[in-house]
Amino acid sequence: PVPVPQVGTNLTDLRLPRRVTVRELGGCMGPIWPSYYSECSALLFVVDASNPTQVSSSCIQLLSVLSAAPLASVPVLVLFNKIDLPCYMSLVEMKSLFRMQDIVSCATQPITMLETSARDGTGLAAVLQWLRTVLKDP
């Protein structure tokens, strides 16, 4: 199956071991994202690392999210996804294209970056560990 961009919104419950609800909002849902900021305890921002044409719009969306007042102290995990595809850009390339060093130095919230593959599971254990840590779930 070919992965397709998220359209709409999905709710998923995780046990970390306490129950945590993850709300997934696709990039095209950007205009309604702010309506969910007040209930946000941690933010996972997923970038398609196999699609260089999306980098600039993803970067603009990330900057918009980071500048939102309700998210000023919410921990952020930027996930460079689809690293299982042959055309993916490495973490070093993505950090450079996104100017992540500049973004991290200007942001008010702590920012972590990871490479993942939702298809084969690479990096997902690290994502769950990050969630446990920032949500203070033992």
Automatic annotation (TrEMBL):
Keywords: GTP-binding, Nucleotide-binding. GTP binds at G27, N81, K82, I83, D84. SUPFAM superfamilies: P-loop containing nucleoside triphosphate hydrolases. GO terms for molecular function: GTP binding; GTPase activity. InterPro entries: P-loop_NTPase, Small_GTPase_ARF/SAR. This is ARL16 protein. The gene is Arl16.
